[in-house]
Fold these 3 entries.
Entry 1:
Amino acid sequence: MPTVEFLPSGLSAEVPPGTEILEAIRQAGIDLDASCGGQGTCGACLVRVVAGRVEPSASPPAGEIDTGCVQACTTRVLDGRVTVEVPEQTGREDGRLVGEDAERLPLDDLLPGGWDLDPLAARCLLQVPPARLQDGLSDLDRVERALAGLSEEWSAQEVVYTLSAMRTAAEALRASDGLATATLIREPGRLQLIGIEAGNRTSSVHGIVVDLGTTTVAVQLVDLGTGRILATRTDYNAQIPCGVDVISRINYARRAGGLEELRRRAVDTINRLIHRLADGQEIHASEIVSAVISGNTTMIHLLLGLPPEYIRLEPYSPTVLESSPLRAAEVDLEIDPYAGVFLSPCVGSYLGGDITAGLLCTDLATDATDISLFIDIGTNGELVIGNAEFLVGCACSAGPAFEGGGIDCGMRAASGAIERVEVDPETGRARYSTIGDVAPRGICGSGIIDLLANLLLTGWIDPAGRLDRSRASPFIETDGKRARYLLVPAEESPTRKPIAISEAGIENILRAKAAVYSASSLMLAQIGLAPSDLAKIYVAGGFGRFLDLEKAIVIGLIPDLSREKFRYIGNASLMGSYLVAVSGEFRQRQLDLARRITNIELSADPAYMDQYTGALFLPHTDLGNFPSVAGAVARARARGRGSANG
Amino acid sequence: MPTVEFLPSGLSAEVPPGTEILEAIRQAGIDLDASCGGQGTCGACLVRVVAGRVEPSASPPAGEIDTGCVQACTTRVLDGRVTVEVPEQTGREDGRLVGEDAERLPLDDLLPGGWDLDPLAARCLLQVPPARLQDGLSDLDRVERALAGLSEEWSAQEVVYTLSAMRTAAEALRASDGLATATLIREPGRLQLIGIEAGNRTSSVHGIVVDLGTTTVAVQLVDLGTGRILATRTDYNAQIPCGVDVISRINYARRAGGLEELRRRAVDTINRLIHRLADGQEIHASEIVSAVISGNTTMIHLLLGLPPEYIRLEPYSPTVLESSPLRAAEVDLEIDPYAGVFLSPCVGSYLGGDITAGLLCTDLATDATDISLFIDIGTNGELVIGNAEFLVGCACSAGPAFEGGGIDCGMRAASGAIERVEVDPETGRARYSTIGDVAPRGICGSGIIDLLANLLLTGWIDPAGRLDRSRASPFIETDGKRARYLLVPAEESPTRKPIAISEAGIENILRAKAAVYSASSLMLAQIGLAPSDLAKIYVAGGFGRFLDLEKAIVIGLIPDLSREKFRYIGNASLMGSYLVAVSGEFRQRQLDLARRITNIELSADPAYMDQYTGALFLPHTDLGNFPSVAGAVARARARGRGSANG
């Protein structure tokens, strides 16, 4: 296998021929934050190949490449020994820390009230009586009796022991006069005992919570003893070079070795985040005894190495929707090998565990009267409408635009991401703020929505998303038929390259918002409801710390309803997974939820194309759907003194 | 690690320094049948060290060693490269095949009547309906429904899937129009689905059944589809060089690395037998989907890598008596990694799963009125008395004599073993027959009992086991105070070395039979019964194809009762394990049995030493206990015209 050596660190990695340099960089343990996630668009992963044979897998973006420099994400290692110089990145360390905060919304606001800490994995303190000749009990018999004494629920259940627990039991029970700590995983109908240690070790018990998104992966480290979230980290899914959406990943999985590669990339992404979290908290990864993982149905199939092929083919039957807990070692998670891995149950091929987790953060499924809408905007948009009586869900393919994918200067909500933007109506100049108040590196979901809405409201783009070439602005740059908007001009950019968004990028955003909006209106229509029938609208997604709902309505992403009905709940999939990790009751609720949701297939509806096409405009071709913003849009349109295109 | 190369085969093995050459020979995959199991007594494993550094771990028996030759079992490899010449053994291949027959008693005689084939692991043919858009079921949902349709019992149980099964499901269900084969393991309260394959694969499903003895290991290959036993193989437990009985093994486990070495040796012994069985039947070891393993409590602890220390120390509390099914990969068994490993439940520290398996071959525990005795004579003797109302058990340390251990010319019941012996009253010459009718290599349990009884009945030994030196016989050889009996003189022996038994060997037999007899009479006394209260006596053990019960009474191994009360049932532990493997009902019976038996500790009884000492004579100091043989013994004693010692 080719060996890639990195300068100046001296680190190296052995990788199969054809591996992208970016993947080799990750395997060598070097942090290089390619803000586009390896799609070859952001240019942040430029490296210099000093020696050895490499091959570009895509043509580099024009004007971005210095002599000898290649994009690590689109350049493959061929064979032999390759030496690559990786430039130092600035603000990286800060970036990851600030980026975490960006993902964290106030916990108390989000969590439903009235639940008990009752985690799926727990450490219990046992006082195990000594062995006695008369009673003929084995060590494990005595452990079982001590456990049964702790809880009525447990005493009724079968207790099973892993070999690892059996092997330490004899010494553990005798080292501290029978005072011992048992580590338990709650499986359906039984307790799995994975460890027995001497003395009181109950203060050290951790779980991880994973939102495995198509584009972004978030991992949270939780103290299961207290329920406290210790830290959260996010990164791009290392599968991105294999395709930006689930359909292209499913296609990639059909290649020889493709499925295993995708599985490996997903697992590696999670493991890297786990190790960073564990290192940051100075705990050993082996002290992590449970994992709750939520993802769309395809992501879960890829993580488990299940062929995803039939998710894509009618009648869209996945291999598994709900699975029993697995062991960490089976899934290759680098935590306690016997840790319980709980997968959030999926509803259908395109309605995944992210939504059954996310719904746990809302009252939607339990409200006895009011009907609400839940919208989770990820690379797949997933929506659920209902109340305690009924639940109907659907999915749409939004693409990664709101996570920064497919946008020239897009990035995920991390340090240096522009999260808020205003646009000067006269000059077109952008005023922005970044996550962490550092120099800008790109723009994240909340910034994209702000930018698009403000460009529309200032007349710099028309309802079709085209930039106004007719007004002289140094921030609109044209090149033949193509135009782009300079969010940060070259001279203000730390890389001396402008941070810009092209019309092609804007079109990707329009397609994403059109998919989400048309899905919500079509689903409402299918069940005979008007938008005004909705009591609440929960909006979830990895946009950033906040989402300006007013602006989201201006661009037509969400329906134009009374503002107090809306609630932005951030990464609800992650938060719901956390609830499952710390509460057996929420695990049960989630399983019940998943079975209750009726999955409807929108693409089969003949009205779909009409709805979608209408929603491709800002905010919509039918301004009657957006009464509260129609006036402002019309005024802006008038101010734009006739664009070159329209 | 040192490398040992073997001539003439050219095979080699890498082993840690200090490993015996015999173990390296086994690891290299060379069959060398050391009939004493590596105790350094039989001399069958002589090899020539051609080059390299080795060290004897024990002094070789006098007069056995040619120049340059060492015993492979008592010589340790030091370091670097060692080259060893292994002489060809004759009759080896035949030996193993005949040896199998020796272990097999007529099945119909042994098995209780009226049971259904209902194995713990099964392959079921499923007709899984195709996926339909409307019903929203996953592949596994449809498998589960098809399974539930097969059995009412199953439809009530939770079904859990291994990752291996999940990974093949999608293709398997679509390759043969939904006709698929599911491989199931029946765990308590749930069905574990470990494989899904396309088409009808129900004809290929195998299990192994293991009797893991302290001295001898027997493995049986079973067709779980039909219940047919395909083949049985036995070998010595490769742990023997670490100690000949459970106490010495427990001590060995306290050394650094000792427990892991013992675990490895047990697993390797089983795996070698599995591979031979699978190769012989031309099946792949991965087609073996269950294992039922019975052994004494210490053997099971060592197999699982559990510290056996506390089995030996008062109050004798083992780590585990009854365990849930494990996976083959956890135990390192080289079969399907997800195969279910079912361990026969143990009763106490010295009353193991071999006895709960063996009892299944009898009516002892179910007889409503008659009280019976079950005696399993292995390196540990284990006894149970009872009926449907009560069950009491105890154990005694017999040592390996009846399996050929600790006897100069002893060997297990395999090809070339002398299984029957008569002794000429006048000349002392032995007439014998061997298993497989081949040249004699040693003597097995049934032969040892025959020999001892006949030497006694012909007056060539006295009741204390001393040879009669006073009568001139070419078959009694003296060397100072020591004497030995030449069973096969040098000139008739294929190795040109006599096959002989020393007085020290005879003493080991006396100790073994005394332990068994005193345990049975003491247990009877403790529960207030006389031997004549027993309706049946089941005798089990690895003596060979048959056991001459008359002779066993003559030497005082078993009580002198009406002959029709006795039944020799051979390796009942293996046969009972077979019953468990093919019948869920027997698994349940066994678990119930184990919980019913009251374990009593004989060594705590002050009468123990008296009983034992009396039983050290042939048949006993108190001939009143042996009325039917007393006359014959007295006549023989008179014929022995006064030995030099008595």
Note: The mean pLDDT of chain A is 89.
Entry 2:
Amino acid sequence: MRKYHLLAPGPTPVPPRVLEAMARPLMHHRTKEFEALFEEVRSGLSWLYQSEGDVIMLAASGSGGMEASAANLLSPGDSALVVEGGKFGERWVEICRAYGFETDVISVEWGRSVDLGEVESRLRAGGHRAVFVQASETSTGAKHDVRQLAEVVRRTSPDTLVVADAITALGVYDLRPEEWDLDAVITGSQKALMLPPGLAFVWLSERAWAVAEKAGSPRFYFDLRIERKSQAKNTTAWTPAISLVEGLRVALEMMRGEGLENIFARHARLAGGMRSALRAQGLGIFPRDLLSESVSAVSVPEGIDGKAIPRLMQNEQGITIAGGQGHLSGKIFRIGHMGYVDESDMLAAIGGLERVLSSLGHELEKGAGLTAAQEEFGR
Amino acid sequence: MRKYHLLAPGPTPVPPRVLEAMARPLMHHRTKEFEALFEEVRSGLSWLYQSEGDVIMLAASGSGGMEASAANLLSPGDSALVVEGGKFGERWVEICRAYGFETDVISVEWGRSVDLGEVESRLRAGGHRAVFVQASETSTGAKHDVRQLAEVVRRTSPDTLVVADAITALGVYDLRPEEWDLDAVITGSQKALMLPPGLAFVWLSERAWAVAEKAGSPRFYFDLRIERKSQAKNTTAWTPAISLVEGLRVALEMMRGEGLENIFARHARLAGGMRSALRAQGLGIFPRDLLSESVSAVSVPEGIDGKAIPRLMQNEQGITIAGGQGHLSGKIFRIGHMGYVDESDMLAAIGGLERVLSSLGHELEKGAGLTAAQEEFGR
């Protein structure tokens, strides 16, 4: 008997109340009932994004939301500046190239945060329609400071749009699309929103909406102009993922009950506890500059089989964590602490990790990680 | 107290066993457990498509699958022949224009099936990369004969691809993508597959896969080449809609238990019973040539408020049916009989409709529709 714990950096655990809501008999989406549901959801999304601006819901996973923001804001041949500091930065590059944008890449060492001086000097060369960046680079556990990046952009190249992948950032730490003058902010359902994957969300600034009206990339399913018109009337242009929207209503209700400040504080507390524990276990935190509150990326100690860590956590402890992606495979592992998670989940992960690391020959003091976490939680 | 009946031409009712499967605690998708689930699902999809060829699953609604087939098979400036005989034919036109294809439209009177002679003469003009058509035009209740259309294409313009929207066709009537020499066949989760919306499926012929390798339209999230490589290894390129895939396993298991022949016979029997009933109620069936087994589109009798019919069915009888779309709004209404439906559902719809039509002043003989349906079911 093993109780299962999902502690990956997404998908994240779904609360029983949300699972129940999704298991209700299906309603039709062209009804007053769905409109009332979607109106409530839209209000919740505005609350989450801390903006009265439209948040567009798409039936797609987060990558679909990323593509939607690119396809709606740039035309073939436009110049894009891409911050590439991990697997998801690479995804921006792939999307921009697939659409035929001139793609100017700032290669950031994986695990580092982008140097804003470098952003500024690239922007000075001029002509970038948009900067693409991760607010939280899930593959490395690093954050890029999108608030300061937006300030650099406004100062240096005011018409350049700031497009932030906030898939593991929104609802995790305080991120204010409107107040920080960002232009596109994307998230997905399977992270802080505590739902299964299948919904993406895109918020655009008024500046970005004006650009979207004229951008020349082909788009249909992801045409945000079409969706904006429909969603203003509490419906969707294409058939929505109805059961996920039912779950979303409940998830947003739970989040509003907790309050944004408490949600952000909880993520910071859990991240802090986890990192104290990891250090007490003799492990190194992989990212070096700004650490994302959503995920801890951990360097595999010398002489330990890195790929065995997530495998044994899964097979022997019943705890899903994640390995490294791309060239970080086997070199890091990642523990998610985002969404429907609390102190007990952290203790489960820390305890399981202690047992796994011991079995792999890593020397550590029994219970030291758990004690360190408890001390941090108690502050 | 009103028991709720969902009898729209999609979304369709979800069986309790499928709802239960989707309500299980979420699994991670980069695990052996998900690979085993997806392998079973892929085998079920091959069975459903009656082909060993790859069926690609996308986290999107059906329109996303339509766009994927267009974006992967044509390049900007390519010529597309579109059969436009309803709302979903119009959708093909919109997609083709959004992608900058030369769009040659065969306008079919809504409710009619396409004249294959017209298809042949357009093809003779030459140069069409693909023909886009609905196997079942959900908005009018008509079918286009995609089997014969493919024969015309092969005879007249062998390299032209045949792209069939089978969203309300596959799993409803006998449609054989490979045997009929079609090139792309799209379906969605919320129709015969008895799931909530949120998954689209695209099957391509080997001829179409070869074209997809070289087609020049921009695509990323819907790039079928990327998905094909991942899905061959029982995973997906982007995060899949995990809970819907859990439901899909159960739905396909239920369908395999029933058997394709029985499924097709059930849909034909229910459609036949429904139409006998409608005629016995003094109503006219709207489509004039080939009738889809998935939906009955009904002409609103003279002097009756057409928009009131679905509204009263919903509000007073607890039965969701659909009105007309586009210029057919108020002129027809549509009853779905697809997916998780049986004779009892047909009687519920026929009985509810009798009560609604009576209240609106349409003269009919009490019980005549129900009797006619029973006679048809008993054949």
Note: Residues 16-257 of chain B form a domain with the Aspartate Aminotransferase; domain 2 fold (CATH 3.40.640.10).
Entry 3:
Amino acid sequence: MPVGIVVQKYGGTSVADPERIRAVAERIVAAKEAGNDVVVVVSAMGATTDELVDLAHQVCARPAPREMDMLLTAGERISIALLCMALIDRGQEAVSLTGSQAGIITDTTHGKARIVDVRPFRIHEEVVAGRVVVVAGFQGVSTDKDITTLGRGGSDTSAVAVAAAVGAEVCEIYTDVDGVYTADPRLVPDARKLAEVTYEEMLELAGSGARVLQVRSVEFARNHGVTVHVRSSFNSGPGTRVVEEDKAMENAIISGLAHDTSEAKITVHGVPDRPGIAARIFQELADNAVNVDMIVQNTSSDGRTDVSFTLPTDDLVTGKAVIEAVCAEIGAAGFDVEDDIAKISLVGAGMKTNPGVAAAMFTVLADNGVNIEMISTSTIRISCVIKAADLEIALRAVHARFGLDGSDAEVVFG
Amino acid sequence: MPVGIVVQKYGGTSVADPERIRAVAERIVAAKEAGNDVVVVVSAMGATTDELVDLAHQVCARPAPREMDMLLTAGERISIALLCMALIDRGQEAVSLTGSQAGIITDTTHGKARIVDVRPFRIHEEVVAGRVVVVAGFQGVSTDKDITTLGRGGSDTSAVAVAAAVGAEVCEIYTDVDGVYTADPRLVPDARKLAEVTYEEMLELAGSGARVLQVRSVEFARNHGVTVHVRSSFNSGPGTRVVEEDKAMENAIISGLAHDTSEAKITVHGVPDRPGIAARIFQELADNAVNVDMIVQNTSSDGRTDVSFTLPTDDLVTGKAVIEAVCAEIGAAGFDVEDDIAKISLVGAGMKTNPGVAAAMFTVLADNGVNIEMISTSTIRISCVIKAADLEIALRAVHARFGLDGSDAEVVFG
């Protein structure tokens, strides 16, 4: 077998202190000694990014986005240098590259830039010279030659983009969990680690609150056909592979259950039921950068209707101000806010061909006394908004009903 | 008067915390509002560089120099970003540039690179657009496209180099002292701030232990004719101007007294008095990167001689090991080490035409019971190595003898 390039990405927890950095260096050396060329992407150490954000807010209330990017990119600069020192000390030639040196070109949107190109000339040069290349995640250089960041979790995207550009065999994402689980093991004791998920399932899980991979990195991997392998940086377990549907070994109907407690719900009452009114509400929210997730509009009877939507709790202050103004303009009756909600999402590629899944999910929730406040679905996902207090019972009941603990591989619906 | 460019450099103490960063921003805005274009060079905040060095040593004992530079340059990245945030928050458009973005090109010597060129295209662009440009000091990009640092105190050199490249009217070095003094005011209560010193005097003072400016920055200023102005970042006092000799307003015979307690002395006994032996000793030391300062060789009587030299205390461990080996090879009798020494240096451009200065200095030291262990001179400097315990009495006596307190402008020698 010819030598292949393996891209390994280590998150902030994996490089949180000098001891862990040395442990990561050992793992990299092992991969190199196994005959692979290794390109590594790292995040900033532990809480560094949070500390830098805090420092910026001590200087002023609204730091300029371009300067915030200049500031935050110091974080990965520190971790790439320290990791290379550990590798070189261990006898492995290594070289650190900033996002800019690694050829990661982005658009000019500071704070959440998108990668537009990766020009891996220098990476290739260094790999050919036998060195391990350690690339700063989360950062790039814009088409205007300014330093940019990709937004929180952006290091996953950096790793996948580098893997695609260098034609890596696999992009290994090392993290502080063992892989992708059928549900959060802290809430569902029977949760089982998955050996594989498809890109689509992973996208839905990540978009529904599973924190193991960042949504954009999964999109990027799917679009460029990069095999992603989620593994623990603290043990040598097999982890979870994220692959194309037709390459998946097992084809479970349901893959997993994600949940999200970071959202709140706003219901606008007595909205005049005329064309353009809903557009008005959500355009105002979008203009104020409020990220709306689910939207439900009840059937109208008397020319007026209720519109409910969920939004991140972080956006709640802005969201309430926007809705207060809009209510007056459109002549709505008023609005109320619920912030003690949770969303549970059942995800599985097999759902497409099994129409009974939704009904089975609603039934098991009802049987356990859990009231459903909102429902939204995609072809491979069903999400329900419930009371936060019902979260644990709901997760456990749905997890058991669909045999996610592995006890019952063949689940019959309908 | 046409608008001129002023370069201002702020050291680590001046930007040590968010409050001081805001104060520096105020000072910059004042300079800009006075009608100048302002280019700022900053060091890393307070103890940042030391903390990063410490972190590196927690990872391994001998960090690779290239990676050390990658690590340390995170420090100024943080300070330039925070200072720009403060300026923008204050309503002043500003843009931070790394050494690389500012066009500071160096050789490839990691840890103590030399600036080979400054290509200020981007600085000019931003200045023309009305922005304050904040450049990261201490760092550059090498001709091999790697990140380099200029060594401790290198931010002064960055500032002078940028000032020369943009044709600045003046390079203001803001620091935590009021200017250049006739002696260290903590040891000599009568010490007086100088309004002006010449490049040559400043070079000798800096080279003899005065910490206010870094030697290389003064050399650079002299070679490129940059007027340097040392000022306090905590008050608006007039500071000290460093100028060419023929531009100096006052021409005191003696300008100041510097001291250095960071050196130790090694004496090699019974060295065979043959050609090439001294060369052998000092070549070995140079090959091991030991920085030798003063060298004294006693007259030989019996075919053997004693050789003494001073070296930084930091190099003492290496220096002793080298000398131990060399002693055996050349058949010397042995060596001893003294680390409780101090060096005092009297500096003044007028010394050239006043041959009595040296004798007057030795006399006042003898009169005060201070024994001189070694002597070295240049055309405008006389340095004496004495016991560290005698430092304060020696400084005060010499300071008074040469009228440096201003009480006696006309001092007669000989």
Note: Residues 18-33 of chain A form the longest helix (16 residues).
